[in-house]
Amino acid sequence: MKIPEELYNYIISGNCVLFVGAGASIEAGAPSAQEMARELSKKYLQGKHQKELLSKIASYIETKPGLGRRLVIDYLINRLSPLKPSKPHLLLPKFRWTAIYTTNYDTLIEQAYEKAGIKYKPIISSCDLVTDMTDYYSYVLLYKPHGCISRPAVSEAPIIITEDDYYSVADNRKAIYRQLELHKYKSVFLFIGYSFSDFNLSQIWFDVSKELGRFSQWAYALWPNCSEVQRATWRTRNLELIDMQFGEFMTKLSAISFEKREEQEFFISNPDLAELVKVLVFAIEAKDPYKMHHALRVQKLSLLIAEEMAIPIHEYQLLEIAALLYEVGYLAIPDVIIEKTGPLTQPEFELIKQHPIIGERLLSSLPSLKSITKIVRHHHERFDGRGYPDRLIGENIPRPARIIAVADSLDAMMSDRTYRKKLSKDKIIAEFKKGSGRQFDPEVVTSALVILGKSRIIKRSGLK
User: How far apart are CA 13 and CA 17, in angstroms?
Assistant: First the structure.
Protein backbone atom coordinates (compact mmCIF):
# COMPACT_ATOMS: atom_id res chain seq x y z
CA MET A 1 0.00 0.00 0.00
CA LYS A 2 1.16 3.54 -0.75
CA ILE A 3 1.22 6.52 1.58
CA PRO A 4 -1.54 8.90 0.44
CA GLU A 5 -0.10 11.88 -1.44
CA GLU A 6 -2.20 14.33 0.58
CA LEU A 7 -0.89 12.95 3.87
CA TYR A 8 2.69 13.15 2.64
CA ASN A 9 2.21 16.81 1.66
CA TYR A 10 0.84 17.67 5.10
CA ILE A 11 3.75 15.94 6.83
CA ILE A 12 6.49 17.47 4.70
CA SER A 13 5.01 20.96 5.14
CA GLY A 14 4.92 20.56 8.93
CA ASN A 15 1.12 20.46 9.18
CA CYS A 16 0.50 17.03 10.66
CA VAL A 17 -0.29 16.31 14.32
CA LEU A 18 1.06 12.90 15.27
CA PHE A 19 -0.55 10.59 17.83
CA VAL A 20 1.66 7.74 19.00
CA GLY A 21 0.00 4.89 20.89
CA ALA A 22 1.21 1.74 22.63
CA GLY A 23 1.31 -0.25 19.40
CA ALA A 24 4.20 1.91 18.16
CA SER A 25 6.37 0.85 21.10
CA ILE A 26 6.05 -2.86 20.40
CA GLU A 27 8.69 -2.62 17.66
CA ALA A 28 11.09 -1.36 20.33
CA GLY A 29 10.42 -4.45 22.45
CA ALA A 30 7.72 -3.01 24.68
CA PRO A 31 5.09 -5.41 26.00
CA SER A 32 1.49 -4.96 24.95
CA ALA A 33 -1.05 -3.81 27.50
CA GLN A 34 -2.39 -7.38 27.68
CA GLU A 35 1.10 -8.76 28.30
CA MET A 36 1.62 -6.31 31.14
CA ALA A 37 -1.76 -7.24 32.59
CA ARG A 38 -0.77 -10.93 32.60
CA GLU A 39 2.64 -10.21 34.12
CA LEU A 40 1.15 -8.08 36.91
CA SER A 41 -1.52 -10.70 37.56
CA LYS A 42 1.06 -13.47 37.93
CA LYS A 43 3.30 -11.33 40.12
CA TYR A 44 0.74 -9.87 42.52
CA LEU A 45 -2.64 -11.63 42.07
CA GLN A 46 -1.65 -15.30 41.91
CA GLY A 47 -2.43 -15.33 38.20
CA LYS A 48 -6.08 -14.37 38.65
CA HIS A 49 -7.96 -12.05 36.26
CA GLN A 50 -5.27 -12.35 33.59
CA LYS A 51 -7.69 -11.71 30.75
CA GLU A 52 -8.97 -8.43 32.16
CA LEU A 53 -7.80 -4.99 31.04
CA LEU A 54 -4.55 -3.56 32.41
CA SER A 55 -6.50 -0.77 34.12
CA LYS A 56 -8.57 -3.38 35.98
CA ILE A 57 -5.52 -5.37 37.08
CA ALA A 58 -3.85 -2.15 38.26
CA SER A 59 -6.98 -1.22 40.23
CA TYR A 60 -7.01 -4.62 41.97
CA ILE A 61 -3.36 -4.26 42.97
CA GLU A 62 -3.83 -0.67 44.13
CA THR A 63 -6.72 -1.55 46.46
CA LYS A 64 -5.48 -4.92 47.73
CA PRO A 65 -4.16 -4.75 51.31
CA GLY A 66 -0.39 -5.13 51.46
CA LEU A 67 0.11 -4.15 47.83
CA GLY A 68 -0.71 -0.68 46.49
CA ARG A 69 -0.21 1.68 43.57
CA ARG A 70 3.55 2.05 44.03
CA LEU A 71 4.11 -1.58 43.04
CA VAL A 72 2.41 -0.96 39.69
CA ILE A 73 4.42 2.18 39.05
CA ASP A 74 7.68 0.43 39.95
CA TYR A 75 6.75 -2.40 37.60
CA LEU A 76 6.19 0.07 34.73
CA ILE A 77 9.47 1.85 35.41
CA ASN A 78 11.48 -1.38 35.55
CA ARG A 79 9.72 -2.82 32.50
CA LEU A 80 9.90 0.26 30.25
CA SER A 81 13.07 2.10 31.30
CA PRO A 82 15.52 -0.26 29.51
CA LEU A 83 13.76 0.21 26.15
CA LYS A 84 15.65 1.94 23.36
CA PRO A 85 14.11 3.64 20.32
CA SER A 86 13.43 1.40 17.34
CA LYS A 87 14.45 2.41 13.83
CA PRO A 88 11.04 3.97 13.08
CA HIS A 89 11.28 5.99 16.31
CA LEU A 90 14.65 7.33 15.18
CA LEU A 91 13.11 8.41 11.88
CA LEU A 92 10.45 10.57 13.59
CA PRO A 93 12.77 13.59 14.15
CA LYS A 94 13.52 13.72 10.42
CA PHE A 95 10.06 15.21 9.92
CA ARG A 96 8.50 18.39 11.22
CA TRP A 97 5.37 17.49 13.18
CA THR A 98 3.03 20.26 14.28
CA ALA A 99 2.91 18.48 17.64
CA ILE A 100 3.15 14.95 18.99
CA TYR A 101 0.65 13.41 21.40
CA THR A 102 1.31 10.07 23.05
CA THR A 103 -0.49 8.07 25.71
CA ASN A 104 2.56 5.86 26.22
CA TYR A 105 4.43 5.84 29.51
CA ASP A 106 7.84 5.16 27.94
CA THR A 107 10.49 7.68 26.85
CA LEU A 108 11.20 6.32 23.37
CA ILE A 109 10.20 9.50 21.54
CA GLU A 110 12.22 11.64 23.92
CA GLN A 111 15.28 9.45 23.39
CA ALA A 112 14.88 9.67 19.61
CA TYR A 113 14.87 13.46 19.71
CA GLU A 114 17.79 13.57 22.12
CA LYS A 115 19.78 11.32 19.78
CA ALA A 116 18.95 13.65 16.88
CA GLY A 117 19.99 16.67 18.93
CA ILE A 118 16.59 18.34 18.63
CA LYS A 119 15.01 20.11 21.58
CA TYR A 120 11.59 18.96 22.75
CA LYS A 121 9.17 20.16 25.37
CA PRO A 122 7.34 17.40 27.30
CA ILE A 123 3.89 18.47 28.46
CA ILE A 124 2.65 16.05 31.09
CA SER A 125 0.83 18.38 33.45
CA SER A 126 -1.43 21.32 32.74
CA CYS A 127 1.23 23.35 34.58
CA ASP A 128 3.58 22.72 31.66
CA LEU A 129 1.18 24.59 29.37
CA VAL A 130 1.85 27.94 31.05
CA THR A 131 5.64 27.68 30.92
CA ASP A 132 7.10 30.71 29.17
CA MET A 133 8.76 29.54 25.98
CA THR A 134 10.23 32.53 24.18
CA ASP A 135 11.66 30.28 21.47
CA TYR A 136 8.44 28.29 21.22
CA TYR A 137 8.96 27.27 17.61
CA SER A 138 12.39 25.76 18.26
CA TYR A 139 10.80 23.01 20.38
CA VAL A 140 8.97 19.89 19.39
CA LEU A 141 5.90 19.87 21.62
CA LEU A 142 5.37 16.41 23.11
CA TYR A 143 2.05 16.05 24.93
CA LYS A 144 1.77 13.11 27.36
CA PRO A 145 -1.70 13.27 28.95
CA HIS A 146 -1.38 9.75 30.44
CA GLY A 147 1.80 10.61 32.32
CA CYS A 148 5.30 9.22 31.95
CA ILE A 149 7.79 7.06 33.84
CA SER A 150 10.15 10.04 33.79
CA ARG A 151 7.83 11.89 36.19
CA PRO A 152 5.74 9.22 37.93
CA ALA A 153 4.99 11.24 41.06
CA VAL A 154 3.50 14.41 39.55
CA SER A 155 0.52 14.95 41.84
CA GLU A 156 -1.68 16.81 39.35
CA ALA A 157 -0.88 14.37 36.52
CA PRO A 158 0.06 10.92 37.83
CA ILE A 159 0.53 8.00 35.48
CA ILE A 160 -2.97 7.02 34.37
CA ILE A 161 -3.07 3.30 34.98
CA THR A 162 -6.15 2.45 37.05
CA GLU A 163 -9.80 2.99 36.16
CA ASP A 164 -10.17 5.76 38.73
CA ASP A 165 -7.19 7.63 37.26
CA TYR A 166 -9.11 8.34 34.08
CA TYR A 167 -11.62 10.33 36.09
CA SER A 168 -9.52 11.76 38.92
CA VAL A 169 -7.20 13.67 36.55
CA ALA A 170 -9.76 14.37 33.85
CA ASP A 171 -9.25 18.14 34.05
CA ASN A 172 -5.52 17.78 33.41
CA ARG A 173 -6.13 15.63 30.37
CA LYS A 174 -8.79 17.98 29.03
CA ALA A 175 -6.42 20.94 29.40
CA ILE A 176 -3.80 19.14 27.33
CA TYR A 177 -6.22 17.87 24.70
CA ARG A 178 -7.67 21.35 24.41
CA GLN A 179 -4.44 22.32 22.66
CA LEU A 180 -5.73 20.39 19.68
CA GLU A 181 -8.04 23.29 18.99
CA LEU A 182 -4.92 25.19 17.87
CA HIS A 183 -4.24 22.57 15.22
CA LYS A 184 -7.49 21.12 13.97
CA TYR A 185 -8.33 23.75 11.35
CA LYS A 186 -5.16 23.49 9.26
CA SER A 187 -3.49 20.25 10.35
CA VAL A 188 -4.38 16.63 9.78
CA PHE A 189 -4.11 14.00 12.49
CA LEU A 190 -2.12 10.82 12.04
CA PHE A 191 -2.69 7.99 14.53
CA ILE A 192 0.02 5.35 14.90
CA GLY A 193 -0.28 2.45 17.32
CA TYR A 194 -3.93 3.02 18.24
CA SER A 195 -6.90 0.76 17.78
CA PHE A 196 -9.25 3.60 18.71
CA SER A 197 -10.23 1.66 21.80
CA ASP A 198 -9.01 4.66 23.82
CA PHE A 199 -12.25 6.51 24.48
CA ASN A 200 -10.62 9.92 24.80
CA LEU A 201 -8.83 9.76 21.48
CA SER A 202 -11.91 8.52 19.67
CA GLN A 203 -13.94 11.27 21.29
CA ILE A 204 -11.43 13.91 20.16
CA TRP A 205 -11.82 12.93 16.55
CA PHE A 206 -15.59 12.62 16.78
CA ASP A 207 -15.82 16.08 18.38
CA VAL A 208 -13.66 17.63 15.67
CA SER A 209 -15.73 16.02 12.93
CA LYS A 210 -18.98 17.13 14.56
CA GLU A 211 -17.83 20.72 15.05
CA LEU A 212 -16.38 21.25 11.58
CA GLY A 213 -18.79 19.01 9.70
CA ARG A 214 -18.02 18.79 6.01
CA PHE A 215 -15.19 21.30 6.49
CA SER A 216 -13.35 18.92 8.80
CA GLN A 217 -9.86 17.84 7.85
CA TRP A 218 -9.32 14.19 7.14
CA ALA A 219 -7.36 12.11 9.60
CA TYR A 220 -5.29 9.01 8.94
CA ALA A 221 -4.55 5.95 11.05
CA LEU A 222 -2.13 3.09 10.59
CA TRP A 223 -4.22 -0.05 10.92
CA PRO A 224 -2.37 -3.23 9.89
CA ASN A 225 -4.54 -5.83 8.11
CA CYS A 226 -7.61 -3.59 8.11
CA SER A 227 -10.58 -4.87 6.13
CA GLU A 228 -12.61 -3.04 3.49
CA VAL A 229 -15.54 -2.98 5.89
CA GLN A 230 -13.41 -1.18 8.48
CA ARG A 231 -12.12 1.23 5.82
CA ALA A 232 -15.63 2.08 4.65
CA THR A 233 -16.88 2.57 8.20
CA TRP A 234 -14.12 4.98 9.18
CA ARG A 235 -14.30 6.91 5.90
CA THR A 236 -17.80 8.02 6.91
CA ARG A 237 -16.01 9.77 9.80
CA ASN A 238 -13.35 11.36 7.57
CA LEU A 239 -10.68 8.94 8.71
CA GLU A 240 -8.61 6.96 6.20
CA LEU A 241 -7.07 3.67 7.34
CA ILE A 242 -3.60 2.75 6.08
CA ASP A 243 -2.64 -0.91 6.05
CA MET A 244 0.91 -0.53 7.37
CA GLN A 245 3.02 -1.19 10.42
CA PHE A 246 4.85 1.70 12.10
CA GLY A 247 8.25 0.66 10.75
CA GLU A 248 7.03 0.14 7.20
CA PHE A 249 5.30 3.53 7.20
CA MET A 250 8.34 5.48 8.45
CA THR A 251 10.67 3.71 6.00
CA LYS A 252 8.40 4.52 3.05
CA LEU A 253 7.90 8.09 4.27
CA SER A 254 11.68 8.62 4.42
CA ALA A 255 12.17 7.14 0.96
CA ILE A 256 9.44 9.32 -0.58
CA SER A 257 10.80 12.43 1.11
CA PHE A 258 14.26 11.74 -0.23
CA GLU A 259 13.02 11.17 -3.78
CA LYS A 260 10.69 14.17 -3.82
CA ARG A 261 13.35 16.54 -2.58
CA GLU A 262 15.72 15.42 -5.33
CA GLU A 263 13.09 15.85 -8.06
CA GLN A 264 11.98 19.40 -7.21
CA GLU A 265 13.62 22.36 -8.93
CA PHE A 266 13.46 24.37 -5.75
CA PHE A 267 11.14 24.24 -2.79
CA ILE A 268 9.70 26.93 -0.51
CA SER A 269 7.12 25.66 1.97
CA ASN A 270 5.94 29.13 3.00
CA PRO A 271 3.53 30.25 0.21
CA ASP A 272 3.60 33.85 1.50
CA LEU A 273 7.31 34.09 0.66
CA ALA A 274 7.48 31.88 -2.42
CA GLU A 275 6.72 34.63 -4.96
CA LEU A 276 9.17 37.11 -3.41
CA VAL A 277 11.91 34.48 -3.40
CA LYS A 278 11.17 33.64 -7.05
CA VAL A 279 11.64 37.30 -8.03
CA LEU A 280 15.05 37.38 -6.36
CA VAL A 281 15.95 34.02 -7.90
CA PHE A 282 15.14 35.36 -11.37
CA ALA A 283 17.23 38.49 -10.67
CA ILE A 284 20.22 36.33 -9.75
CA GLU A 285 19.69 34.20 -12.84
CA ALA A 286 19.61 37.31 -15.08
CA LYS A 287 22.88 38.44 -13.55
CA ASP A 288 24.67 35.08 -13.65
CA PRO A 289 22.86 31.94 -14.88
CA TYR A 290 25.65 29.70 -13.58
CA LYS A 291 25.28 30.99 -10.02
CA MET A 292 21.54 30.42 -10.15
CA HIS A 293 21.89 26.80 -11.24
CA HIS A 294 24.58 26.37 -8.61
CA ALA A 295 22.22 27.80 -5.95
CA LEU A 296 19.45 25.41 -7.01
CA ARG A 297 21.80 22.47 -6.54
CA VAL A 298 23.07 23.86 -3.24
CA GLN A 299 19.49 24.17 -1.98
CA LYS A 300 18.75 20.55 -2.84
CA LEU A 301 21.92 19.33 -1.19
CA SER A 302 21.36 21.58 1.86
CA LEU A 303 17.84 20.27 2.42
CA LEU A 304 18.95 16.66 2.01
CA ILE A 305 21.68 17.23 4.60
CA ALA A 306 19.19 19.02 6.89
CA GLU A 307 16.76 16.09 6.65
CA GLU A 308 19.56 13.68 7.50
CA MET A 309 20.39 15.85 10.53
CA ALA A 310 16.67 16.21 11.42
CA ILE A 311 17.05 19.89 12.23
CA PRO A 312 14.03 21.71 13.77
CA ILE A 313 11.30 23.04 11.52
CA HIS A 314 12.11 26.73 12.01
CA GLU A 315 15.73 26.21 10.93
CA TYR A 316 14.67 24.04 8.00
CA GLN A 317 12.29 26.70 6.70
CA LEU A 318 14.98 29.37 6.97
CA LEU A 319 17.41 27.09 5.16
CA GLU A 320 14.95 26.57 2.28
CA ILE A 321 15.19 30.26 1.45
CA ALA A 322 18.74 31.06 2.53
CA ALA A 323 20.21 28.24 0.43
CA LEU A 324 18.71 29.85 -2.67
CA LEU A 325 19.64 33.43 -1.83
CA TYR A 326 22.94 33.06 0.01
CA GLU A 327 24.85 34.61 -2.91
CA VAL A 328 22.35 37.38 -3.62
CA GLY A 329 25.09 39.89 -2.72
CA TYR A 330 26.74 39.17 -6.06
CA LEU A 331 24.03 41.36 -7.63
CA ALA A 332 26.10 44.36 -6.52
CA ILE A 333 29.46 43.01 -7.74
CA PRO A 334 30.52 44.46 -11.15
CA ASP A 335 30.16 42.06 -14.06
CA VAL A 336 33.74 42.70 -15.11
CA ILE A 337 34.95 41.07 -11.90
CA ILE A 338 32.45 38.18 -11.91
CA GLU A 339 33.21 37.36 -15.55
CA LYS A 340 36.99 37.69 -15.23
CA THR A 341 38.72 34.48 -16.35
CA GLY A 342 42.18 35.28 -15.05
CA PRO A 343 43.39 35.60 -11.45
CA LEU A 344 41.76 38.30 -9.32
CA THR A 345 43.83 41.15 -7.95
CA GLN A 346 43.88 41.59 -4.17
CA PRO A 347 41.46 44.57 -4.29
CA GLU A 348 39.12 42.57 -6.55
CA PHE A 349 39.21 39.62 -4.17
CA GLU A 350 38.49 41.91 -1.21
CA LEU A 351 35.45 43.26 -3.08
CA ILE A 352 34.26 39.70 -3.79
CA LYS A 353 34.55 38.98 -0.05
CA GLN A 354 32.03 41.75 0.59
CA HIS A 355 29.17 39.84 -1.07
CA PRO A 356 27.93 38.22 2.21
CA ILE A 357 27.67 41.68 3.81
CA ILE A 358 26.02 43.13 0.71
CA GLY A 359 23.57 40.23 0.68
CA GLU A 360 22.72 40.83 4.34
CA ARG A 361 22.07 44.54 3.69
CA LEU A 362 19.93 43.82 0.64
CA LEU A 363 17.76 41.27 2.43
CA SER A 364 17.49 43.48 5.55
CA SER A 365 15.53 45.94 3.43
CA LEU A 366 12.84 43.26 2.97
CA PRO A 367 11.08 42.75 6.34
CA SER A 368 9.81 39.26 5.45
CA LEU A 369 13.38 38.04 4.74
CA LYS A 370 15.20 39.58 7.69
CA SER A 371 15.23 36.21 9.43
CA ILE A 372 17.73 34.80 6.92
CA THR A 373 20.15 37.74 6.88
CA LYS A 374 22.57 36.27 9.42
CA ILE A 375 22.68 33.00 7.51
CA VAL A 376 23.56 34.86 4.32
CA ARG A 377 26.18 36.96 6.13
CA HIS A 378 27.94 33.97 7.65
CA HIS A 379 27.94 31.33 4.90
CA HIS A 380 31.69 31.87 4.35
CA GLU A 381 32.69 31.52 8.00
CA ARG A 382 34.90 28.55 8.87
CA PHE A 383 34.36 26.22 11.80
CA ASP A 384 37.87 27.01 13.09
CA GLY A 385 37.26 30.78 13.03
CA ARG A 386 39.41 31.59 9.99
CA GLY A 387 36.54 32.51 7.67
CA TYR A 388 34.92 35.84 6.82
CA PRO A 389 33.47 38.38 7.36
CA ASP A 390 33.40 38.06 11.17
CA ARG A 391 35.72 35.10 11.90
CA LEU A 392 33.02 33.33 13.92
CA ILE A 393 33.97 30.00 15.50
CA GLY A 394 32.07 26.70 15.70
CA GLU A 395 28.49 26.84 16.87
CA ASN A 396 28.55 30.64 16.90
CA ILE A 397 28.00 30.28 13.17
CA PRO A 398 24.26 29.76 12.46
CA ARG A 399 23.67 26.08 11.74
CA PRO A 400 21.93 26.73 8.38
CA ALA A 401 25.04 28.69 7.31
CA ARG A 402 27.24 25.74 8.31
CA ILE A 403 25.04 23.43 6.22
CA ILE A 404 25.17 25.76 3.19
CA ALA A 405 28.97 25.93 3.47
CA VAL A 406 29.20 22.15 3.14
CA ALA A 407 26.57 21.93 0.39
CA ASP A 408 28.29 24.75 -1.52
CA SER A 409 31.65 22.96 -1.39
CA LEU A 410 30.07 19.60 -2.23
CA ASP A 411 28.46 20.98 -5.38
CA ALA A 412 31.68 22.75 -6.36
CA MET A 413 33.67 19.54 -6.03
CA MET A 414 31.02 17.63 -8.02
CA SER A 415 31.18 20.12 -10.90
CA ASP A 416 33.64 20.73 -13.73
CA ARG A 417 35.39 24.07 -13.48
CA THR A 418 37.51 25.97 -16.02
CA TYR A 419 40.61 25.21 -13.99
CA ARG A 420 39.88 21.55 -13.10
CA LYS A 421 37.62 18.58 -13.68
CA LYS A 422 35.11 17.46 -11.04
CA LEU A 423 36.58 15.38 -8.26
CA SER A 424 36.01 11.67 -7.82
CA LYS A 425 33.78 10.46 -5.01
CA ASP A 426 36.78 9.15 -3.06
CA LYS A 427 38.56 12.48 -3.45
CA ILE A 428 35.48 14.39 -2.25
CA ILE A 429 35.24 12.17 0.82
CA ALA A 430 38.94 12.72 1.53
CA GLU A 431 38.56 16.50 1.18
CA PHE A 432 35.63 16.61 3.59
CA LYS A 433 37.40 14.45 6.14
CA LYS A 434 40.41 16.74 5.87
CA GLY A 435 38.25 19.84 6.36
CA SER A 436 36.04 18.42 9.13
CA GLY A 437 36.53 20.44 12.30
CA ARG A 438 38.60 23.00 10.42
CA GLN A 439 36.66 24.45 7.52
CA PHE A 440 33.46 22.50 8.16
CA ASP A 441 31.19 21.50 11.05
CA PRO A 442 31.94 17.79 11.71
CA GLU A 443 28.26 16.99 12.30
CA VAL A 444 27.28 18.49 8.96
CA VAL A 445 30.11 16.66 7.22
CA THR A 446 28.93 13.34 8.68
CA SER A 447 25.44 13.87 7.27
CA ALA A 448 26.80 15.07 3.92
CA LEU A 449 28.82 11.89 3.57
CA VAL A 450 25.65 9.86 4.18
CA ILE A 451 23.96 11.84 1.39
CA LEU A 452 26.99 11.33 -0.82
CA GLY A 453 26.49 7.60 -0.47
CA LYS A 454 22.82 7.42 -1.44
CA SER A 455 21.56 10.53 -3.23
CA ARG A 456 20.33 10.29 -6.82
CA ILE A 457 21.58 13.86 -7.29
CA ILE A 458 25.08 12.54 -6.65
CA LYS A 459 24.57 9.55 -8.94
CA ARG A 460 23.29 11.77 -11.76
CA SER A 461 26.48 13.81 -11.51
CA GLY A 462 28.41 10.78 -12.70
CA LEU A 463 30.69 10.52 -9.69
CA LYS A 464 32.76 7.37 -9.39
Answer: 12
